[in-house]
Amino acid sequence: MTYRPVVDLDSSAVVAVEVVTSLPPTGRDSMAEVTPREQMMVAEWLLTLVREAASTESLLPLVLPLPARTLTAGDEFVSLVDSRLRQAGRRPRDITFLLTADLADLPRQTVTSGVARLRTAGFRCGFGTALVRPDLILETTPFLIRLDPTIVSGISSDQRRTTVVEGLARLGRGSGVYAMASGVSSADDVVRLRRCGLRVGTGTFFADDDWRPGDRVTQVPEPVTTDQDASDAGPQITEFMLPPVGFDADSTAGEILDAFTKDPALNSVILIDHRDRPLGVIDRTRFLLSVTGRYGHALHAKRPSMRLAESPRTVPAWMSALAALRVAGQDNSRVYEDLIATNSYGQVVGVVHVSDLIQSLSRS
């Protein structure tokens, strides 16, 4: 088994971990119906992958392979997988299933209904190949599409590959689907992929095959900004970003209270939608004042936490620390609350403590 960091091409932040391993043997044709025995075997195999990943003590989202033919199974298989992965302490929204390349051989209706079942259960789906019809991507709206290394390799010197990648990136942006480059092997690849509009990637440029979650990755080249104001010189907020703690928008206040209780250093929790876009932010101090006061727990614990959330203050991940401080100062009542760093899709990539920005800039 190999772990690959999924890296934000703007900030160098590791946003997920892809698990690469051989698929369980089925001995059956991809078009054949999946038997109950095979469903159990695949579910137990996924449980093993998650438990082994958990041994690294990583809380990052996981990208797991899933045989595309399992889309022919029904709701029973999805419920079985959900139950097994929750045994390992993983919520469905923490998992993206990367469907194997034989996806292109399945009937259209099978893919559409199968992806819909996984999404209804809270899982995210990725197409493990770009060799699927564009209209199928638009109809099913997977969470991500993986660009094969054969397409990405040599992009820095081959205009034909650049054109293909630009088209897939544009298709992804237009439909709200991540396009993830695989096989990134050089800094030149990173620069060209960013120009094409891609924002996440994996490959040997970032880490070798012995990489484990928590290890460092190779930093991406700094984005070149031609319109940056001279007063914005200095460190970027990527130097201060911390991993975000996200919850579904329908999470209860009791679940948020548990998160704050378990981590005394946690400043805020972000409520996000199914595509990792921030819907609200819950500040620790304000939240605890509401929940732990007289009758507070009884009033709020079992009700949606969104009632206690405030609008997120977002900044692009490539913004300078000085510019981010100006954003923080726009609301006097929330100056010291966390800022949420987002990528060009508007998705959360990290949080920034304003106090860290102030301390750093005061020393410079």
Strand fraction band? 15-25%
Strand order of the largest sheet: 1-2-3-4-5-6-7-8
* Relative helix content: 25-40%
What's the multimeric state?
A: single chain
Could you give the order of the helices and strands?
EEHEHEHEHEHHEHEEHEEHHEHEEH
Average pLDDT score: 85
Number of separate helices: 12
Rg (C-alpha, Å): 21 Å
**Largest sheet report:** 8 strands, mixed, barrel
Alpha-beta content class: alpha/beta
Shape: globular
Intertermini distance: 44 Å
Number of strands: 14
Low-pLDDT ranges: 226-231
What does this 3D model show about the protein?
The structure is a single chain. By secondary structure, the chain is an alpha/beta fold. The chain has helices at residues 36-54, 75-87, 108-120, 134-140, 149-152, 159-175, 187-196, 253-262, 284-291, 296-300, 321-328, 354-363; strands at residues 2-8, 14-20, 62-66, 95-99, 124-127, 144-147, 178-181, 200-201, 246-248, 268-272, 278-283, 314-316, 339-342, 348-352. An eight-stranded mixed β-barrel has the order 1-2-3-4-5-6-7-8. Helix 1 (36-54) packs parallel to helix 2 and helix 6 crosses helix 7 (187-196). The model is unreliable at 226-231 (pLDDT under 50).
